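Quality-control log, excerpt.
Job 1 of 2 completed; input and output follow.
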Amino acid sequence: MKYVIASDIHGNARYASLLIEAFRAEGAEQLILLGDIYNPGPRNPVTSEYAPLEVANMLNALADKLTVVKGNCDSEVDLLISEFGFTDSCCIFDGGVKITLTHGHVYNKDNIPLSCGDALIYGHFHEGSISRVKTIDGKSVLIANAGSVSLPKGGSAHSYLVLEDGTLTLKELMSRKEIASEHIKI
């Protein structure tokens, strides 16, 4: 199965639309969103493209293809405009490899859950990256941050991840060009 994994839309209709275009162009079967879907949060600017109801309508049209992880800016009231649910975290299995998906405000490269499996993918920090770390038991774990669809920080690109056949690729949203990639299989 091919997945597009993205994070931190923060209610921006323009970038939500670009993400959906990328999802379709990639030919992915599932779109995984790693939180902060509608609310801009207290430290982020509210732009003229802030339109959470419009974002909800776009995502509701894809409800059967969505897995949505709750972020620190998501709340129960978001369910009122969503035709899909939010989960605190989830795992997927790709070719016998366990991948944990979370928002990143609790579990991230600095706090890896013991049961994360072979990879931990998150958002929250708005800077896309892929790297490997050694956990306490010496096992190599792939760590990836999807970055932010709408509000990249630290000079990083508007980005998303593609997972297919054991390869995770970080891509720039507008051009869909590869920024970095890594095989998850160890």
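Job 2 of 2 completed; input and output follow.
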Amino acid sequence: MEEKHPSFDIKNSLDSKLGEKKIVLCITGSVAAVKSSDLARLLMRHGADVFPVMSKAACNIIHPDLMHWATGRYPIIELTGNVEHVALAGNTKTKADLIIIAPCTANTIGKIATGVDDTSVTTFATTAIGEKIPLLVVPAMHEPMYRHPFVKENIDKLISYGITVMQPRVEEGKAKIPENNEIYEKVLELLSPASGKKLLEGKKMIVTAGRTVEYIDPIRVVTNNSSGKMGVALAEKAAEAGADVTLIAGKISVTPSKKIKVIYTDTGQEMYDAVHKELESSHYDIFAAAAAVGDWQAEEKSTEKISTHEKDSLVIRLKPTPKIIDSIKAKYPLIFLLVFRAQHDLPEAGLLEDAKKRMEKAAADMVAVNDVSKKGVGFESDTNEMFVITNNGYTEKIAMDLKENVAKKIISVLAKEIDKK
């Protein structure tokens, strides 16, 4: 009887881009579960066969009958002698093409990251990971929960193992689930990678990120507040867009995923040398200078710790550090150069004018600039607001958003500029 359910009539009603793909839609106990039936039917309208799996907590938000109506299939709430997790996520001929967990609570993210199986959803996730079935995790929770360092650590852990995690929309104090159309686009990308060329497919790219330190003695340094979050986000999004990315990092507070090659450096000179060694060793198409390289270094560095017990004051003479971005185009004129610029408390017109001048001085193709005096913008924050300007006169303002989303928009502009060349 189930195969004749009336809801199957909506399959392929929009198109067949997901034609005959088998998708397991797992639902956990977030209030965002109220959108799950619509997501299921959207996937079906694009041709997918959807198999719902619900945790018991999810059943307290929406009734299982709703998902039965939406998909034409009884939701899996408890595992039975039919070993549903093996049939749909194990090494069988009936396994799914994709497992989605939408919405995914902080609790479930933590369980997946640590291999805990105590719900139908987590058992499906563990089985899918072991079988290397693509897994799409779509978090939804209260914003303070999303900001919890252990939750972020668990998300980073999932990403490092190749699990796709969609970033939520942070609004009204909540980390809200993306719109269903956005989830569908991500599903299409995961299941139909050949349906369209990725934005940076075939491109090799270097990204610098984080802050450098300049020693005044073996212990003390001159530095800045950059966390490296923006540069790492840019590297991650470039990799998702198909680029072969090398990240040259100073001090960073986030862990890049394992799909990205990382070269760690300390001082501005070390980063300068690492950049040029990498550029000399292989052909690169794009150089994105997102690192906050220190502008000043001590003229003379003490070889011993400077004692505060022997001095009433200390005078340190500083000299400029080597400018990485000004050294690129002279030696590699064909590389696409994106530079980042941070300013403090400038009016918008002044911010744009300053960015254009810096772009011209470096002979860069594109500049991304922000005003770090604004709350939630720039150093150490998870959000950013930027202007991107190209050397052909195009300017776009990227509204405040999570750095991952800002990075994605920068990549979009960058890709369009590269296509023009």
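Post-run check on job 2. The chain has a mean pLDDT of 92.
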